[in-house]
Design goal:
This protein is mainly α. It has eleven helices and no strands. 14% of the residues are buried.
Length: 203
């Protein structure tokens, strides 16, 4: 029931490393060169991390999937996107000319790519997510969809949904099983438990 918490472990490891990188490059000390140095360092480490991910994916998928070094690039790209938007990097301005709607549609389709090309699907999903974040603006239909009040409520509960969904699925598979007729009840249970967790623990 707790297998999925591996990702929390990877995130926490990243959060231990990233402040050190921010300090070492001068970014967190507001040095003039800090932003540029951090961007360059994150880019180099991301290329190295992505190379590790592709290499390990062929010989040891568990290592590629569950260890922080091969997953570092995904979170680092998020940091680079933030820095790029905040500092108005030229490359960000170029991408902003595109509509986020198309990237969001492609992102949804990428979630259905076969597991046989899992490493490529992962790269595509990260790239498209980054492009949606960079390009989105209030005039886009994707913005209207993603800021829908029901979508936002699910978004607020997303951490709790993430924490509890696999536990319910695991216990269900050991007991009742997972069939077409049980899925609606299991989804309802996941939402009820997640709502309680969000309202009375997380908030």
């Amino acid at each position: 029931p707790f297998t999925h918490t591996w990702s929390l472990s990877v995130e926490e490891q990243f959060y231990f490393v990233y402040p050190l990188l921010a300090w070492f490059t001068g970014y967190s000390r507001n040095k003039i060169y800090g932003t540029k140095c951090l961007s360059i360092l994150l880019s180099i480490l991301s290329i190295f991390s992505l190379t590790l991910f592709i290499y390990f994916y062929e010989i040891n998928q568990n290592a590629a999937y569950f260890l922080m070094p091969p997953r570092f690039w995904e979170m680092a790209i998020g940091c680079l996107v933030f820095i790029g938007i905040y500092r108005n990097y030229k490359i960000i301005e170029i991408f902003k000319k595109f509509k986020s709607n198309y990237f969001l549609i492609l992102l949804v389709f990428s979630l259905f790519l076969p597991t046989s090309i899992g490493f490529l699907a992962n790269i595509i999903a990260v790239a498209l997510t980054s492009l949606v974040i960079i390009c989105i603006n209030k005039k886009d239909k994707s913005y209207i969809v993603l800021t829908n009040k029901y979508i936002l409520k699910i978004g607020l509960m997303s951490y709790s949904l993430y924490l509890w969904h696999w536990g319910v699925i695991s216990i269900s598979s050991w007991t009742l099983g997972i069939y077409w007729w049980t899925i609606p009840f299991q989804v309802i249970i996941i939402f009820i438990v997640s709502f309680i967790s969000y309202k009375y623990v997380e908030k």
